Amino acid sequence: MRRKNLRKKIIDAAIKLFAKKGFYETTVDDIAKAAKIAKGTAYLYFKDKPSLYISVIEEHFVTAMEYLQKIHKEDLTSTEMLQRTADEWINYMVKFKSSFPMFSIENINLTRRIMKAIKPIIFIRIEEMITLIAQIIEDGIKKKEFRKVNPRLAALYFLNTIRTGFFAQFFMPGMSVEKNATLELFFNGLKKRR
Amino acid sequence: MRRKNLRKKIIDAAIKLFAKKGFYETTVDDIAKAAKIAKGTAYLYFKDKPSLYISVIEEHFVTAMEYLQKIHKEDLTSTEMLQRTADEWINYMVKFKSSFPMFSIENINLTRRIMKAIKPIIFIRIEEMITLIAQIIEDGIKKKEFRKVNPRLAALYFLNTIRTGFFAQFFMPGMSVEKNATLELFFNGLKKRR
Amino acid sequence: MRRKNLRKKIIDAAIKLFAKKGFYETTVDDIAKAAKIAKGTAYLYFKDKPSLYISVIEEHFVTAMEYLQKIHKEDLTSTEMLQRTADEWINYMVKFKSSFPMFSIENINLTRRIMKAIKPIIFIRIEEMITLIAQIIEDGIKKKEFRKVNPRLAALYFLNTIRTGFFAQFFMPGMSVEKNATLELFFNGLKKRR
Amino acid sequence: MRRKNLRKKIIDAAIKLFAKKGFYETTVDDIAKAAKIAKGTAYLYFKDKPSLYISVIEEHFVTAMEYLQKIHKEDLTSTEMLQRTADEWINYMVKFKSSFPMFSIENINLTRRIMKAIKPIIFIRIEEMITLIAQIIEDGIKKKEFRKVNPRLAALYFLNTIRTGFFAQFFMPGMSVEKNATLELFFNGLKKRR
DNA sequence: CATGAATGAGGCTTCATTCAT
DNA sequence: TATGAATGAAGCCTCATTCAT
Questions:
Q1: Could you say which residues from 138 to 167 on chain B have a Cβ atom under 8 Å away from some Cβ of chain A?
Q2: Domains and their CATH numbers in chain A
Q3: pLDDT tens, B111-146?
Q4: Which nucleotide shows the minimum CA-to-C1' distance to residue D38?
């Protein structure tokens, strides 16, 4: 091994590019250049371009899950947990200028050989995330913090809430929106009570 | 009028393919075959592939806006209006097995020559939709149906709620989720009151 | 169809190159240049490089079989028929500076995806040729021109004899060998009679 | 001596692979793996892949020539000598499932950098073999065992006879052909005497 | 207007060869 | 010596776009 952690270097370069330009607009050459390796080197670490893409996504999810699990262990109310999760996550996405891992959901109805390999992996990962968040919500219901709702549906909804928070940057001129306005909607709903 | 017909035929064929396979996996050849025209003909009606894609999205948005405006004119409470909108929309997306127009938002941070052309157009259209929905929400606030929130943010949030409803199909085993469970969350929030 | 018989033009260019340099050393680009077409054009007529190669071989065999069948119909003794066949064939090979179709036999124990497609086709063709020649030999046996031998084996042997005649050019300095010396050996054997 | 060992190990691995898959389908990596050495090591013993290939062929020829010379020294009639030679050789080829050294002749009209290096070496070796066999034949002629024929041509023809024997395996269904049927044809020819 | 054959730039991948350890 | 990670040239193939008919 002449250079070390080349795998990581490649993934790091690839994350940025895939996040910025997507699968098709990112060439293996781009990645190689960004990672300062020769094109062929990428193929020592990854079977092909889709495999590299999958690895990148996996990396993203692993990082995300670590966040979640860490928060999960802290001594917080369920509300605070979701709050913290959303905060960290949005920061992360803003840092990468990409809601990359969320995006992956969209690939759901892409077809053909390439995406077929990617789909099952993403599914599993999103399932994991949903399950973890659903647990937080279930706890919240037990503790009477939350209403009685379908926890898995609420979890999925939560993920989309985060996404909305991210997109708000683009569509709310001036970004005057207080960071937690979206989450406030998530917690309290649109309707006036009573 | 011959002209109009062919243009429509191409767009109709393209909508299905783009919705199913996305921009990159759909070839101009595919579209031409599906529309039963010669490949070259597509270039008589659209400058290039991105232009065709944009036109397809435009078509989608126009259709969507027509829905919205029709609903807007009906004599309904604001809540009912949003309800109706969500219903119709989800039906539409399920029919196409694609949340295509929503998806386009994700392209936000795709770059390079191709997407650069698409971005501003989508922005404008999404702006239009947000504005229209924000109006409904603003009315609702005035009528004390809704709490005092940022109407534009709530509108963006509403769009994402619809999206969640669509994705719930994939992640809620058995699809036992009542159709409006997501919307219920949107209206009433997660938290227990008082 | 802007240009006509492009398929033939490609095959003609490919025959020369494959015959001269073999499958691997001949690039699709070489062929395209020789045929004065764009690289991509070759793929309009042939699925991939192996397919093109197969077509080239087929072409060769078809030509060869036509020779054989024409001769077969003439009013000649069996000996004359074989003589004529050998003559024409060697001329043909010399013209192409290649014993290409014969060569193909050697591919018999090449493996891997590419050659696996080629093998069965060559087998069938060689079988056809052997069958036709075996018939001539069988007739010759009936007419007491030839000894009682296994006709199919003799046919295969005949093919190899032609090959020898061709190679003699390279190994017999001065090419002083009378053209039919090899065939004479084939007919009369090495051994002194009685 | 370590040196000698490794060199031999590489050649032994390479013979099998080249014989089975040919020059292009065999990668240096394949060979290294089969020889249980590092890829780079191969380059300590052989300048490049063609050089290795040449060495492999040389090895083949040397082995073959040793056979021949041993037989040549035995006290046999010329007919028996050729018989023995053919027997041993076909066994050898069957063992390797390849008429590898013979095949090399075909490369005659392969060109380009790689084959240009191989050609002259094969030529010389085949020349040697032809010369040795031609001598046997010349002796046979002197001893009135054989007819008066061009000994070198007969020798080349003999090599091809062996080849035919090898190919008979593939084209003679059931392989019922007695092993020496081909040789019988070589000795006695196709034609009926008188 | 409509066609579809032809083009060729550009992407992915392989693999012989090098070279720091 | 021996290693095997790294290199990058070169090949195959796809597909958006053009243009003669």
A1: 140, 144-147, 149-150, 152-154, 156-157, 160-161, 163-164, 167
A2: 1-46 (1.10.10.60), 49-188 (1.10.357.10)
A3: 455 566 666 777 788 888 889 999 999 999 999 999
A4: F3
